[in-house]
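Title: Prediction job returns without error message
Component: structure pipeline
Severity: low
Priority: P3
Assignee: unassigned

Description:
Job completed but the reporter wants confirmation the result is attached to the right record. Sequence as submitted:
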Amino acid sequence: MRWYRACRHVAQRLGVRGWVQLVCAACALVLLCAGIYPLYRMMLHSTRGQEMEDLQVFAQRLEAELGLLGLDLDGVDSAENQRVRQVFSVPFRSGGVYPMLVHPSGRIVYHFLREGERIPPDVMEQMAFSPGRTGWVELQFSEGPGQKRELAYRYSPRLGCYLAVEFPPPNTLPALVSLRAWWLIVLVVWLSLAVVVGGVLGRAIRRQLEGVSERLARLARGEHPPGRVPHGFLEMRRILVSLNRLTHGLERTTEFAKSIGRSAFDVPFTPLGSNDSLGRSLVELRNSLVEQEAAAADRKAKDAIHGWTNQGLAEFGQILRERSGSITELADALIQHLVNYLEAAQGGVFTVGAGSDGARVLLLTASFAYGRKKFLAREVHFGEGLVGTCAVERDTIHLNHVPEGYSDLTSGIGQAPPTELLLVPLKTDEELLGVLELASVRGFQPHEIEFVKMVSSSIASTLLTAQSNQRNADLLQQAQAQQVQMREQEEEMRQNLEEIQATQEEMERRTHEVEVLRNAVREGMLYGELNEAGVWLTANHKLEEIYRQMGHKGIVGTQFVENTDWHSANGAKRLETVWDDVRHGGHIEGVFTLHAQNAGDRTVRGILYPNRNENGTLLCVYFIGLEITEMRRESR
């Protein structure tokens, strides 16, 4: 036991490096001993080579002697046979080794002791197929257990037989036996020493490796074993130190992974080293998750802005469709909804119109501030102030600071005055229709500014349409008033013929004015006359051009009633259903759809008005209107 402890203490003091050097020295000695075996083989090869040379010399001498004697081995008689036997009775060399003559059939023809015996067929076959029919072969002459012999042979073509010499096994040579014995002794001694030392060293290392293996197994199962104080060999202590570092590093890595699972991305973490693939992968995962979270938040914000924009466009589109009749009502509804939708403090809509002095100015059509409609009257000339500048430049103005005293609207509940101002021109491609002014306390975001720009385009188009409709309605009312006035004047002319004759000049002047007005209507609007059957009698060039575009060769003589639909506030009807009302003195107005021979139907807002004489006879039916095909298409 003391010897074992002493060996273990020495082994631990030497360390793995010392034991490696000791084992290397032992291996070198073992290799030195193993080098004796090639020496043994070389000595054996040298001995066999010398014997083969002696056999060759003997064969040459034997062939010469038989030639001198003039003997033929195939036809020797008894006397000649005796003479040949004397040649083979002389020893090959010292040691009692005699030559022999072997027939190819395997029979020993001449030998001092084995004459008449036979060599096994398999040995003879091996001799026959050997290179040059020369070499060595092992055989056993006597049956049963016995010592094997080695036979050196050489085929003599002149004699037609094999010359052979029988030798004992090479391991019986004294020099080789002595060399082999020493080699075996040294090898056994060193192997015994290696077994003893390896057992002591292996037992010590095995115990430490079992502890390391147990900790590694726990690590492989996902556990974190507690650290141990390094002990034992120097290399083993280094292994234990590295294992403790690995365990501690895995614990930190596990805590870092848990923090990632909790979305705590701000937890600090440093990988174990530059080649720590797990730690670097976790850091990359943390960075990737942070980027994905930021991208998701950005995408969510963009989606919210996109949804907010689409919802606003839909709401304002509905307002533009429902309030397109009156510019004032449209402006009031737009600015009120826009201020509330943007959470602004106040806003106003300026439209282009004629000022008090007749000049072209910007009129405050609607205003809204702090949740209430404001009734203000204000005129702004082009180039005057921020509103006039925006109208002249036709570009958006965004101020982060509102000039002091700019707004004269205040809140009665103590709200702060606006701090940002946004002015957007209401324009189409060719015409400026007004300016939209908004003021905010919290400020305008970039997407809100873009939204106001998009809405301003739709507002401008709707204002242009509303103004056009209002002008057309005014013209239509004026034309109707003129027609009424003309009928009254005609009645007065029939009742007061003498008075008419007396005032002929005045009537001619009035007739001229009416004719001028009719010409103005004919040139500015769609104008035509229909007979009682609803067939065109005449039409101005604008209406005739529309019919040509609809696929008709001409308008005169073309049926109007049968190819037209009438749209009123109560819905759409075929014009034929209400044509009798027109023929009997009634008039209708609304939207008319003119069906074309091709796919180009036209939409016209107009009026059908009958013209009768004093007897009530229908002379013709007037048609006055304005084409709104493109406007209806845009509104859809």
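Comment from assignee: result matches the submitted record. The longest strand covers residues 602-612.
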